[in-house]
């Protein structure tokens, strides 16, 4: 089971991390997640993706000030770069992270 410590360890030991916050009752979350994970994995192979179920670990959501689902947080080198909640498209997320990701790995 995830803890705040394990999430922080992931953030500190990887250059590119996406946290995906959702809940079992969120239909949008379940529709968006596989498409987003596939796109990120295909285009940005070094990204680490962590899925966080806010119904099981509300303390992680509150630590990151996540109050709506789905929420995507993207971190580069341990620092939050992007925050998207509720209404987002896969293309929007990809477009937002493509340039900084490529610069970081260049």
TrEMBL record:
Instruction: Name the source's superkingdom.
Output: Bacteria
Q: Name one GO molecular function term.
A: protein-disulfide reductase activity
Domain (Thioredoxin): residue spans on this chain: 8-81
Q: Name one GO cellular component term.
A: cytosol
Example of a GO biological process term:
cell redox homeostasis
Q: What protein is this chain from? A: Thioredoxin domain-containing protein
């Amino acid at each position: 089971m995830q803890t705040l410590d394990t999430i922080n360890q992931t953030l500190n030991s990887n250059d590119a991390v996406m946290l995906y916050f959702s809940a079992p009752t969120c239909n949008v979350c379940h529709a968006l997640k596989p498409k987003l994970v596939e796109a990120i994995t295909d285009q940005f192979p070094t990204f680490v993706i962590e899925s966080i179920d806010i119904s099981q670990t509300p303390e992680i959501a509150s630590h990151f000030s996540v109050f709506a689902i789905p929420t995507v947080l993207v971190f580069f080198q341990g620092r939050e770069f992007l925050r998207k909640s509720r209404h987002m498209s896969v293309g929007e997320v990809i477009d937002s992270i493509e340039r900084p990701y490529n610069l970081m790995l260049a």
